[in-house]
């Protein structure tokens, strides 16, 4: 499919509203039980939830769902809906009396883009997006463009942003996929290497959110390093990136299905470096896919031609 859903077990659900003051939504990445994960935040203006729990030094190593949402910090309320769905379905960290689902989240700034500043994602929208993900079949087609968390996304007040996705399969059978919500201060780098004009200085808060997923067996520390390496894909796709006005955040999920070659230290390092290099590449492709899949706002749609088709 050329999508993050090419990673076995990964499912994506979108929920959005537009019209009547709304232009926002939620995207949920629902991995299989037992998925390990971590996160890397390099933007200067992040809006996140439960990311501290993904540090390699903390107690929990698994992730039950990842929520990407509009609505800035207000939209993080949608994570409660995803958590409720997980609890109802017995997914979470076991504690006396039940489970506590681990549901990290990150938000883009799209407040007021539909006209109503108070129209932002809710817990019910997070629940609906999670249920939609759970209803998907294996290797399903992933909605792109102005859907889910990409509904109200823009880039530098010049282009419409949106959701993009991509995947790569390595020779050892490892699959690496990514989904990106492009709401950046910067503009895309063209295939020729030339950069688009600088973003307008009056652009509001912005963010590129990414989830990288792989079927390779990684521990939390290796997920953390892979998320950090994947940030290079944002820098290759968008200029500028990781600014004070961006909340650039990358999650990394490992479904623990395909063992890497760890026969000796050199093999271990080569396996991880190869995987992390592919992760950066697939993030770049997912971001450009999000640009190509979105609708133009204030410039001719033909301007997207330099970024290529899906």
What features would you describe in this structure?
The structure is a single chain. The chain is of the alpha+beta class and 310 residues long. The protein has one domain (4-298): 4-Layer Sandwich (L-amino peptidase D-ALA esterase/amidase). It is built from five helices and 16 strands. The strands form five sheets. Strands 1-2-5-8-4 form a five-stranded mixed beta sheet. A hairpin with a 3-residue loop joins strand 9 (154-155) and strand 10 (159-160). The longest helix has 29 residues, at 265-293. The radius of gyration is 18 Å and the shape is globular.
Quick summary:
This protein is of the alpha+beta class and 310 residues long. The protein has one domain (4-298): L-amino peptidase D-ALA esterase/amidase.
Q: Superfamily at the CATH H level?
A: L-amino peptidase D-ALA esterase/amidase
Indicate the radius of gyration in whole angstroms.
18 Å
Distance, first to last CA: 11 Å
Total helical segments: 5
In the sheet with the most strands, the strands line up as 1-2-5-8-4
User: Which structural class should the secondary elements be placed in?
Assistant: alpha+beta
CATH architecture identity: 4-Layer Sandwich
Q: SSE order, as H and E?
A: EEEEEHHEEEHEEEEEEHEEH
Number of domains: 1
Taking pLDDT < 50 over at least 5 consecutive residues as the criterion, the unreliable ranges are 296-310
- Give the percentage of residues in beta strands: 25-35%
């Amino acid at each position: 499919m050329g999508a993050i859903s090419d990673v076995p077990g990964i499912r994506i659900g979108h929920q959005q509203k537009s019209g009547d003051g709304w232009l926002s939504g939620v995207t949920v990445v629902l991995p299989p039980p037992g998925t390990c994960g971590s996160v890397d935040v390099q933007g200067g203006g992040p809006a996140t939830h439960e990311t501290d729990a993904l540090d390699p030094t903390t107690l929990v190593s698994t992730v039950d769902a990842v929520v990407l949402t509009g609505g800035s910090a207000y939209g993080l309320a949608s994570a409660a809906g995803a958590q409720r769905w997980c609890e109802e379905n017995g997914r979470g960290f076991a504690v006396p009396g039940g489970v506590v689902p681990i549901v990290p989240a990150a938000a883009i700034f799209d407040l007021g883009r539909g006209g109503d500043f108070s129209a932002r994602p809710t817990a019910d929208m997070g629940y609906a997006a999670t249920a939609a993900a759970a209803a998907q079949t294996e290797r399903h087609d992933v909605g792109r463009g102005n859907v889910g968390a990409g509904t109200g996304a823009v880039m530098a007040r010049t282009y419409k942003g949106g959701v993009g996705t991509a995947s790569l399969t390595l020779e050892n059978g490892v699959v690496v996929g990514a989904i990106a919500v492009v709401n950046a201060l910067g503009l895309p780098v063209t295939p020729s290497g030339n950069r688009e004009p600088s973003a307008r200085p009056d652009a509001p808060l912005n963010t590129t959110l990414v989830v990288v997923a792989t079927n390779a067996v990684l521990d939390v520390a290796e997920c953390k390093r892979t998320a950090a390496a994947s940030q290079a894909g944002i820098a290759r796709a968008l200029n500028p990136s990781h600014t004070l006005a961006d909340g650039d955040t990358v999650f990394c999920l490992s479904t623990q299905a395909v063992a890497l070659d760890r026969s000796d230290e050199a093999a271990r390092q080569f396996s991880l470096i190869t995987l992390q290099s592919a992760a950066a590449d697939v993030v770049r492709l997912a971001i450009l896919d999000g640009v190509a899949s979105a609708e133009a706002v204030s410039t001719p749609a033909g301007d997207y031609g330099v970024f290529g088709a899906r």
